[in-house]
Amino acid sequence: MTVKPIVLDILPTDLDHARLPKHIAVIMDGNGRWAKRRGLPRIMGHQRGVDTLKDLLRCCRDWGIPALTAYAFSTENWGRPLEEVEFLMTLFERVLRRELREMMEENVRIRFVGNLEALPPSLQDEISRSMQDTQTNTGIQFTVATNYGGRQEIIQCCQAIATQVKQGLINIEDIDESVFEGYLYTTGIPHPDLLIRTSGEMRLSNFLLWQLAYAEIYVTQTLWPDFNREEFHQALLAYQQRERRFGKI
Ligand code: IPE
Ligand code: IPE
Ligand code: MG
């Protein structure tokens, strides 16, 4: 049997393959501003943002990065005008339906994290189908945070653990970080090493509060629809220049 090597030849030569992040999280921000600057409705920015995400996913695969997590919709984003929320829900569904075949061909394993039960039923159906169909794929782990809130995730862990305690299945003194992690939406996926946020905002906006505890943070002024491989290359270069101490000296 011949093992197909990961395509490394297109990784920029100034990046060290051995020190690439194993998991990258991205806050795809600035779609609305991108559209506004062009005199377009905000939704056009979201539409364009899909292409950026598609190329980033492909780039991670090409450069040998095993996991990517993208923030698509926060628990707070329901507070936007109904028209925008509805557009986004329809967009997610449409893109998922359109891209599933290609994701299968490219061996992508997709997982959605967040309070998925509150999403429109037809979107939930597409989500279940995509997760089921790709669950045995062995390529990049692609996680999409949809109706996701870090605080809500932590509360839902507490509730699940409290239920187990009440039923006598867990002792309080046995609750530790690894038990807790077993109840996170992201259980089984290693924590992100690098968080990229576009559009210049220096905040987490309720994204992966637990998981990002020791992530390196890279913020670019570039708006999400304009983020490209060269920008990504710059983010990885910056990451490789960081010294990750994890509290040690
Ligand atoms: C990010 O872009 C996409 C989502 C939150 C769905 P925004 O829509 O937040 O764009 P800005 O920040 O208003 O420019
Ligand atoms: C974060 O962006 C959420 C997503 C990218 C899905 P927001 O635009 O909602 O965050 P704030 O409002 O600037 O904090
Ligand atoms: Mg925003």
Listed once per kind, the bound small molecules are: 3-methylbut-3-enyl trihydrogen diphosphate, magnesium ion
Largest sheet: 6 strands, parallel
Structural class based on helices, strands and sheet pairing: alpha/beta
Provide the number of structural domains: 1
Subunit arrangement of the protein:
single chain
Low-confidence parts, pLDDT < 50 over ≥5 residues?
Answer: none
Given the structure, what is the number of helices? 7
SSE string, helices as H and strands as E: EHHEHEHEHHEEH
CATH-defined superfamily: Decaprenyl diphosphate synthase-like
GO molecular function, one term: ditrans,polycis-polyprenyl diphosphate synthase [(2E,6E)-farnesyl diphosphate specific] activity
Subunit structure: Homodimer.
EC number: 2.5.1.-
Active site: 29, 77
